[in-house]
Amino acid sequence: MLTRYCFALDLKEDPALMAGYDDWHQRVWPDIVRSIREAGIASMEIYRVHNRLFMIMETDESFSFEKKAALDQASTTVQAWETLMWTYQQALPFAKPGEKWLRMDKIFDLKNAE
């Protein structure tokens, strides 16, 4: 059984940077894809409207945020990717210092509405 998480983050409001971010996500480094899968992430999608990003992530039973953080911290490639991506990204206005992708709360599900 998969667990779904949704996150939000902003890009810097610069058309060239937004286009650059999109471009990088059409050619994600293979080691990044591998690290995502190794963490127990079965599916990940990122959507953008203007400079707002939404990420939908589905994880298997082996996933934990602590495991993912430890794997990321141990990988120089992931650290390089995150540094590169941060040149395009900016924290949401209400994020705490050091927070990047913020987990969203599910407030509606059509399946439960009937």
What does this entry look like structurally?
This protein has 114 residues and is of the alpha+beta class. It has one domain: Dimeric alpha+beta barrel (Alpha-Beta Plaits, 2-Layer Sandwich), CATH 3.30.70. It is built from four helices and five strands; from the N terminus they run βααββααββ. Strands 1, 2, 3, 4 and 5 form a five-stranded antiparallel β-sheet that branches. A hairpin with a 2-residue loop joins strand 2 (41-49) and strand 3. The longest helix has 11 residues, at 76-86. The protein starts with a strand and ends in an 11-residue tail after the last strand.
Would you summarize the structure shown here?
Strands 1, 2, 3, 4 and 5 form a five-stranded antiparallel beta sheet that branches.
> N- to C-terminal separation?
23 Å
Helical residue percent?
A: 25-40%
The CATH superfamily appears as Dimeric alpha+beta barrel
Low-confidence stretches: none
Which word captures the global form?
Answer: globular
Structural class label = alpha+beta
CATH class: Alpha Beta
Mean pLDDT: 97
Task: Assign the CATH architecture.
Answer: 2-Layer Sandwich
Largest sheet geometry? 5 strands, antiparallel
Total tally of structural domains = 1
What is the CATH fold-level name? Answer: Alpha-Beta Plaits
Strand content: 25-35%
Q: What is the succession of H and E elements? A: EHHEEHHEE
**Can you count the helices?**
4
